[in-house]
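Posted in: Structural Biology > Protein-Ligand Complexes

Title: Requesting predicted complex, iron/sulfur cluster in pocket

I'd be grateful if someone could produce the 3D structure tokens for the following input. Sequence and ligand are given below.
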Amino acid sequence: MAKVWVDDSCIGCEACVDAVPDVFQMEDGKAKVVNPEGASLEEIKEAAEACPTESIKVEE
Ligand code: SF4
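-- Reply #1 --
Done. Output follows.
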């Protein structure tokens, strides 16, 4: 299973939460991973690529 997390550079734009809400949720103004299996790895990688601050990390 891939490891997915959000680092401290998140600016809280909510793009990842909008794209894959089953994986990412907002907490205290930043995104956090609530369920790394809530979407396909491909969808998570797309969210990571769309993140403006490259805050979403995926380790396969
Ligand atoms: S897309 Fe990136 S900057 Fe925006 S909320 Fe998600 S992790 Fe944070």
